[in-house]
C-alpha cells in the first residue's frame, strides 16, 4: 500500500473517532486474529449504578458514607457509582486518610479511626472470613450479573453494595461481527467468576475472571504464544500492562490518561463496533482479503 493510501486511511479513521498512531498500527490492525476485551467500561457502559445495599452491623447510610469516603478521588467506574449514590442519598462523606487503590481488588484506608476495605468478594476473602450466608448473598447478586463490593471494617464484613453495569448496546453485535470475521474474542476481568459468566453468556463471548492486572497481561501473552495476533481493548484503569503487551493496545472511549499513553489506538466514541470497523478499514487500505 502507498504512503498516500495509508495517510488517507488514518484520516478517514480519525474522522470517525478511530485514532491510530501511525501507519504501522493501521497495518497491524488488519492482521489481528484475537481481541482481548476488558469488561468494565469496555464491554459494559462503564456507568454502573448501585442497585442494592445490604447493611449488617452498620446502618445503610453509614456504610454508604464509609464507602464513599474511600472512593473520593478515585476514577474507577465503581467509585463513580458509589459516589453518585451517596450524593443522591445526601449522606455526608467523612474524610478518609491514607486511602489507596489496590489494583484489581478495591480500595482501603482509614475513616473515622477505623480501617475500612471496600472491594471484590475474593479480595475481601483474602482479608477476612465470609460466612456461608454472606457467600450466598454475594452469589445471588453475581448470578444477576451484578458486581458486589464488600465493606470490611476492622477485619469484619459489615455489608455489601451490589452494582449493575449494563452491557454496551452494541456489544453483542460487535462481538458477533468479529466472530464472523474469524477473530477470537475473550473478555478479561478482575470481577468475580459468576458475574463474568452472567455478563459473558449474554454477549456470547468467552470469559476469564478474577484476574489481576498481571494476569490480564499473562493471558495476552498466552494468546500470542498460540500464534494469535492480539489486540487488547480497555479503559486503561488497571490494564496498562496488558495494553502494552498486546500487538495493538486500544483505548476505549474517554479512557484514563495512562491508556492513551500506552495505547497504539483509541476509539473515541466507545463502541464495540469500532473494533471490527478498524479491522475493516485496515483491510481496505492494505488490500487484505478476508
Ligand atoms: P475490570 O477488570 O472489570 O475492569 P478491575 O480490575 O478494575 O475490574 O476491578 C476488579 C474488581 O475489584 C472489581 O470488580 C471490584 O470488585 C474491585 N474493585 C476494584 N477497584 C474498586 C474500587 N475503586 N471500588 C470498589 N471495588 C473495586
Ligand atoms: Mg477496568
UniProtKB/TrEMBL annotation:
Annotated coiled-coil segments of the chain: none
Keyword Cell wall biogenesis/degradation attributed: no
Keywords: ATP-binding, Cell membrane, Membrane, Metal-binding, Nucleotide-binding, Translocase, Transmembrane, Transmembrane helix
Protein name: P-type Zn(2+) transporter
Compartment(s) of residence: Cell membrane; Membrane
UniProt keyword annotation of DNA-binding present: no
Family affiliation: Belongs to the cation transport ATPase (P-type) (TC 3.A.3) family. Type IB subfamily.
Amino acid at each position: 500500500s502507498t504512503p498516500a493510501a495509508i495517510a488517507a486511511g488514518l484520516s478517514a479513521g480519525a474522522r470517525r473517532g478511530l485514532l491510530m498512531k501511525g501507519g504501522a498500527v493501521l497495518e497491524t490492525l488488519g492482521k489481528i486474529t484475537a481481541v482481548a476485551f476488558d469488561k468494565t467500561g469496555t464491554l459494559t457502559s462503564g456507568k454502573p449504578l448501585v442497585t442494592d445495599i445490604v447493611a449488617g452491623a452498620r446502618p445503610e447510610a453509614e456504610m454508604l458514607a464509609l464507602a464513599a469516603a474511600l472512593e473520593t478521588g478515585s476514577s474507577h467506574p465503581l467509585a463513580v457509582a458509589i459516589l453518585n449514590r451517596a450524593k443522591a442519598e445526601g449522606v455526608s462523606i467523612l474524610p478518609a486518610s491514607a486511602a489507596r487503590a489496590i489494583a484489581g481488588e478495591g480500595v482501603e484506608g482509614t475513616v473515622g479511626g477505623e480501617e475500612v476495605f471496600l472491594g471484590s468478594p475474593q479480595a475481601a476473602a483474602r482479608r477476612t472470613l465470609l460466612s456461608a450466608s454472606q457467600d450466598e448473598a454475594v452469589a445471588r447478586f453475581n448470578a444477576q450479573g451484578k458486581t458486589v463490593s464488600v465493606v470490611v471494617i476492622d477485619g469484619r464484613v459489615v455489608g455489601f453494595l451490589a452494582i449493575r453495569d449494563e452491557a454496551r448496546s452494541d456489544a453483542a453485535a460487535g462481538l458477533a461481527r468479529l466472530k464472523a470475521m474469524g477473530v477470537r474474542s475473550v473478555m478479561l476481568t478482575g470481577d468475580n467468576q459468576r458475574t463474568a459468566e452472567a455478563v459473558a453468556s449474554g454477549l456470547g463471548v468467552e470469559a476469564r475472571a478474577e484476574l489481576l492486572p498481571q494476569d490480564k497481561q499473562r493471558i495476552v501473552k498466552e494468546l500470542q504464544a498460540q500464534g494469535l495476533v492480539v489486540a487488547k481493548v480497555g479503559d486503561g484503569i488497571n490494564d496498562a500492562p496488558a495494553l502494552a503487551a498486546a500487538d495493538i493496545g486500544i483505548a476505549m472511549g474517554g479512557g484514563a490518561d495512562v491508556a492513551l499513553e500506552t495505547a497504539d489506538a483509541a476509539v473515541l466514541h466507545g463502541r464495540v463496533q469500532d473494533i471490527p470497523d478498524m479491522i475493516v478499514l485496515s483491510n481496505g487500505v492494505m488490500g487484505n482479503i478476508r
